[in-house]
Amino acid sequence: MRPSQPDSDLGDALTTVSKPRPALNGVDTPTLFATLDAVKASPELAKFQFRATNRWLSGTHNRSTIRGFFGAGQEDESRTEDFSYDADHPAVLVGNGNGPTPVEFLLHAVAACLTAGIANIAAARGVVLHEVSSTVEGDIDLLGILGLSDTVRNGYQGIRVNFRISADASEEDVRALVEQSRARSAVYDVLTSGVPVSIDVATG
Amino acid sequence: MRPSQPDSDLGDALTTVSKPRPALNGVDTPTLFATLDAVKASPELAKFQFRATNRWLSGTHNRSTIRGFFGAGQEDESRTEDFSYDADHPAVLVGNGNGPTPVEFLLHAVAACLTAGIANIAAARGVVLHEVSSTVEGDIDLLGILGLSDTVRNGYQGIRVNFRISADASEEDVRALVEQSRARSAVYDVLTSGVPVSIDVATG
Questions:
Q1: Which residue intervals of chain A are DSSP H helices?
Q2: Which of A128, A185, B15, B60 lies at a 20 to 30 A Cα distance from B73?
Q3: Residue B163, CA distances (Å) to A124, B95, B123 in order
Q4: What is the pLDDT along chain B (204 residues), one digit of tens a residue?
Q5: Contact A110 B174 (CB under 8 A)
Q6: How confident is residue A7, by pLDDT bands cut at 50, 70 and 90?
Q7: What is d(CA B26, CA A57) in angstroms, rounded to the nearest whole number?
Q8: Is the per-residue pLDDT at A28 higher than 90?
Q9: Are B174 and B3 in contact (CB under 8 A)?
Q10: Mutating which of B56, B121, B130 best tests the A interface, going by the most A Cβ atoms within 10 A?
Q11: Is the Cβ pair A102, B93 closer than 8 Å?
Q12: Is A154 near chain B, with CB under 8 Å?
């Protein structure tokens, strides 16, 4: 099939234009577009399953490991070591502070997802990035999880992401990068729209 | 005020029963209930703000740091060092695999939150835990984020959490621990019900 070339976008229709994009911002843009072509030709390659395993250590301290996943038609073997992350509650919440709280990892996840999207989309649009930094804040009223209110929700009441971006582009174009990243962000979608979560238990 | 004592629960009405619970499973149960009492007396202590900062490194590789938060009426100072986490896309998604994908951190977050809850609730109920381990799987069809479908969502289509729990309790009581943890989990709530996420951009 004819290779797609970037129009003004990654993550929308893969319109073919005349000028191929070189690698940019550390993004291998030609391979990115070749990957899009491959998935377009074989949509089943897009079915992925990600995984984590978690083990309780003591109190509210527990540890997850992340490594294998299925995608592009096969079990991934590119990761040669586990990624490992601790979570805990801080002292003020009667934990030992051996890691961030679980809800703080949600803030990392949304910043990371939006930022990766901005880098890919900038490369696809030929925009040179100098800096993409962000702060994320999440407000939560613990009256919910502490069981002290039936009207306060358990989770965050709102999350705010504030980006600072320096790029060789107009402010309008930079804002358009962020908007396109938001529009195609997996984590933003999950956080804003929710996802079914099933829980099973084996005992013994 | 009269100290609360655990009934069968943490995270529902703080019913007072006759028998105080000692520390258990690494959970300082007396302090946990004292904390609940303090928040019950001064509900504004329950207002927390968690934060993360993120910086783009190259391509889809970026790094978050997590440290400060506001809660219990003041800025927390218990954390003496930053927690730092990298995220990246794997090679098959044209990244360099310098960290898990952002969506994998969501799986860690939900396992960690449910597990911390199980530990606290077990302590409150006087249940000795021997093992709490879990695997989490998330199915995602990348036709969404790749912009190759207007009907496939960007995020996970479903997440499954499978616990294995060994405890000095009946299967029914173990399942009730998990159910109570689910019912008061901040991450489960955010993932299943969604949360407003606002995004702002400063350029230059």
A1: 29-41, 102-125, 171-183, 186-193
A2: B15
A3: 42, 31, 18
A4: 334 444 445 554 333 444 678 999 999 999 999 999 999 999 999 999 999 999 999 999 999 999 999 999 999 999 999 999 999 999 999 999 999 999 999 999 999 999 999 999 999 999 999 999 999 999 999 999 999 999 999 999 999 999 999 999 999 999 999 999 999 999 999 999 999 999 999 998
A5: no
A6: very low
A7: 9
A8: yes
A9: no
A10: B56
A11: no
A12: yes
Helix axis angle, B102-125 to B171-183, nearest 10°: 120
- Kindly give, in sequence order, each residue whose CB lies less than 8 Å from that of residue A46, ignoring residues fewer than 6 positions away: A39, B141, B142, B143, B146, B148, B152
- B16 interface with A at CB cutoff 8 Å: no
Give the mean model confidence (pLDDT) for residues A103-129.
Answer: 98
Per-residue tokens: A201: 């238990």
Q: Which of residues 112 through 131 in chain B touch A, CB cutoff 8 A?
A: 112-120, 129, 131
Question: Collapsing DSSP states into helix, strand and coil, what is residue A26?
Answer: coil
Measured between beta carbons, the chain A residues lying within 8 angstroms of B174 are 201, 203
- The answer to whether B117 touches B109, Cβ cutoff 8 Å, is no
State the nearest Cα–Cα gap between A188 and chain B, in angstroms. 8
